[in-house]
Amino acid sequence: MSLSEAAAPQREPDAVPRMARARPFGLFLVLTGAVAWVASGILVLERIALYKDPDYVTSCDFNPWVSCGTVMKSTQAALLGFPNPFLGIVGFGIVITIGMALLAGARFARWYWVGVQVGVTLAMVFIVWLWSQALYEINALCPYCMVVWAMMIPMFLYTTARNIAHGVLPAPSALRRVAGEWTWVAVIVLLLITAATVVLRFPGAFVGA
């Protein structure tokens, strides 16, 4: 192999779905990670304002059902002893960095992608728990939190599909094909289900009481 061949970027197989390829997937991580990072940053600033002034009204306090302040003051909002959005600042910052590295042509070992999968899976589990707590325990919605939910769902599904397509997660060929072709459907279905649960749980916030 010549020096020029060794230095050339490796070409991904045509069988790999477009969204599982380095550049498209990297751009996807940057965009979804950036939106979630900004939402987390706003939540951090709002939480700091509440620390300074307990009577502060957050920018997303609209009614009894849609109130970031109510959510922030709950015990669930600081599961590890500090505000949850700090986890988002760090976690989504890492996601953006991975995406930028992929856009720059970086390639990562299988063990690295296993770590990424573990990370997004734990994040997804945490988001599902926060969703359940907001709807059935805190009884209030946080719009910025819902933005993070909306980004985390496709981030988890497409990362899983990417890792299945590249063999990071062992799967039969049929599942690899389904993951490559139908991930977008799963994303839409989960987003619609999430939106439906919110509307059904708090109909007064959307259609009036």
From TrEMBL:
Residues 22-163 form the Vitamin K epoxide reductase domain. It is found in: Membrane. Gene3D superfamilies: VKOR domain (1.20.1440.130). CDD domains: VKOR_5. Keywords: Disulfide bond, Membrane, Oxidoreductase, Quinone, Redox-active center, Transmembrane, Transmembrane helix. The keyword Transport does not apply. It comes from the Bacteria. Pfam families: VKOR (PF07884). InterPro entries: VKOR, VKOR_Actinobacteria, VKOR_sf. It is a multi-pass membrane protein. Signal peptide: none annotated. The chain crosses the membrane at residues 25-45, 86-104, 111-132, 138-161, 182-202. Belongs to the VKOR family. This is Membrane protein. It comes from Paeniglutamicibacter sulfureus.
